[in-house]
Amino acid sequence: MKPTNHISIHTFCQYHGIESRLIFTFQELGLVEIVEEDTELYLEEEKLSRLEQIVRLYKDLDLSPEGVEVVIGLLGKIEKLQEEKRILTRKLRKWE
Fold first, then answer.
1. N or C: which end of the chain has fewer CB within 10 A?
2. In the 8-state DSSP scheme, what is residue 96?
């Protein structure tokens, strides 16, 4: 029985033209989570946009899975720094 909030790995890979072993490599690197239900493997729908971003980095920039891991890590750090800047800017405006 297929869960309604999941998409099969096979379907995702077929749509994006990649092999399923790439998804497992991304899982080993901690970039994606795979859900197993009734001996079938699925991806959570709410996390598909991140996985699509990962696949685009891999395909469009011709990065290795490890290179994608580095880029995703750097993007996460940039987002944190931007949020810190927003917070500090708000605090600074209170003192003006």
1. C
2. -
pTM above 0.85, yes or no: no
Q: Which CATH number fits domain 6-95: 1.10.1660.10, 1.10.760.10, 2.10.109.10, 1.10.3470.10?
A: 1.10.1660.10
Give the containing element (helix H, strand E) for 79: helix 65-95
Per domain, the residue ranges of the chain are 6-95
30-59 pLDDT, tens per residue? 999 999 988 899 999 999 999 999 999 999
Written as one string, the DSSP assignment of 6-64 is EEEHHHHHHHHT--HHHHHHHHHTTS---EEETTEEEEEGGGHHHHHHHHHHHHHTT--
**Which amino acid is it at 12?**
F
Is-contact 53 91, C-beta < 8 A? no
CA atoms of 96 and 46, how far apart (whole Å): 41
